[in-house]
Amino acid sequence: MVREVSESCVDSLLTEMVACYCNRFYANKPELAARRIEAIGYQVGHQLSERYTMERPRFTDHLEAIKFICKDFWSELFKKQIDNLKTNHRGTFVLQDNKFRWLARMSIDPSTDNVSPLEDITSPTAESKAAQAMSMHLYFPCGIIRGALSNLGIPCAVSADISNLPACSFVVRIKA
Amino acid sequence: MQFFGGSEISPSPPAPTASGNNGHMMYVFNRNGVCLLYREWNRPLRTLDAQQDQKLMFGLLFSLKSLTAKMDPTSAVEKGNLGMPQLPGQGCSFHSFRTNTYKLSFMESPSGIKIILVTHPRTGDLRESLKYIYNLYVEYVVKNPLYTPGSPIRCELFNTTLDQYVRGIS
After folding, report:
1. Chain B residues within an 8 Å CB radius of A8
2. 38-67 in A: which are within 8 Å (CB) of B?
3. Residues 6+ apart with CB under 8 A from B79
4. Where would you find the membrane-spanning parts of this chain (chain A) (predicted)?
5. Is the pLDDT of residue B4 over 50?
6. Which residues of A105-127 are buried (b: 16+ CB within 10 A; e: fewer)?
7. Kind and range of the H or E element at A47?
8. Would you call B45 exposed, middle or buried from its count of C-beta atoms within 10 A (0-12, 13-18, 19+)?
């Protein structure tokens, strides 16, 4: 029997974790908050990859490990595989999830008809604030991927691109 | 261990069939009487400004809830004075009323969220539809990390899904 965690519970926990680091612990230091959130993700990914590779033989190359992340690892986490994997064959991989679960409900209304006079949602500051808030929620999954790969002996840097929500692309750059 | 628990939105309840778009307007209030959302689909005549309109609507609901609870002939519980606030779900509560020009359907969640939908007078029972709208609220507003509880709802996903659903109500 597979053990499951309530998705709502994890969603709320992730939201609260990001809110705590961004608005309370490091309210004026977004870079530091991002680093801490990513570090938590790293630890989680590290432990999860240990657990999900228990029954497997060692990976022979980078591509095999990345494929494991795209298929088995992602399926364990989100009950779906990564939708698209691209590589330049020089150590950079792009993993695209067309409907990333942790972003699926994230939205703001760009229209101005229901905005309070105090805050213009279409102003650059409000828009960039929303974008920053969204990107803050991506440090955790980036950390998870980095932690998982690191535990498989692949040191790398992971970043995310959310230019077309709810799709999300994770860019993995393997360190030489 | 999976980060998964199957909280997908349940399929839309079957809406009673008739023709055209019957949704006129909708309000969402929180337990403190703050109007979190006002949506309008078909309201040619507006006699009040938005704030007055919302105050009046909340006052009407408050009074009707008190009145229906006070008049309840089946409950033996001490009912208190007319107008005394009741806990959500306490006592009996109305779910709709109808006039010759519109029907007002009402639902209140245990957390005190009140959803009011004003539709064409010939619209059928909308209790399941209101539950579904509440489900949308939970999925797209409460679970939206960018939403601050108690503030006006500005979630594009919620608005578009709601529009789509209400336009289908008949």
Report:
1. 5, 7, 143
2. 48, 51
3. B69, B70, B72, B91
4. none
5. no
6. bbbbbeeeeebeeeeebeeeeee
7. helix A30-52
8. exposed
Q: Which residue range(s) make up the domain with A33? A: 28-106+126-172
Q: Distance between CA atoms of A114 and A110, rounded to whole angstroms?
A: 10
Q: Which of A18-27, A67-76, A150-159 has the lowest mean pLDDT?
A: A18-27
CATH of the domain at A166: 3.30.1380.20
Number of domains composing chain A:
1
User: For chain B, how far is it from start to end, CA to CA, in angstroms?
Assistant: 43
B96, part of any domain: yes
**pLDDT given at position A117:** 40
Number of neighbours of residue B90 by Cβ within 10 angstroms: 11
Give the distance from residue A1's alpha carbon to the nearest chain B alpha carbon, in angstroms. 10
A15 and B145 in contact by Cβ < 8 A? yes
With bands split at pLDDT 50, 70 and 90, how would you rate the model's confidence at B47?
low
Asked if residue A151 lies in contact with residue A56, where contact means CB atoms within 8 angstroms, the answer is no
Q: Do A107 and B152 touch (CB under 8 A)?
A: no
Return the CATH number at B104.
3.30.450.70
pLDDT, tens digit, 9 for 90 and up, residues A71-130: 889 988 887 889 989 888 878 899 989 888 788 877 765 554 444 443 444 445 565 667
pLDDT at A74: 92
Question: Which domain, by its residues, includes B146?
Answer: 21-41+49-69+87-166
Chain A residue at shortest CA distance from B160 = A109
Domain assignment present for A137: yes
Residues 85-124 of A with CB under 8 A from B: 101, 105-110, 114-116, 121
The number of domains in chain B is: 1
Which residues from chain A sit within 8 angstroms of residue B145, using beta carbons? 14-15, 18-19, 105-106, 133, 137
- pLDDT of residue B55 exceeding 50: yes
User: Is residue A144, in this structure, part of any structural domain at all?
Assistant: yes
Residue B17 DSSP class = P
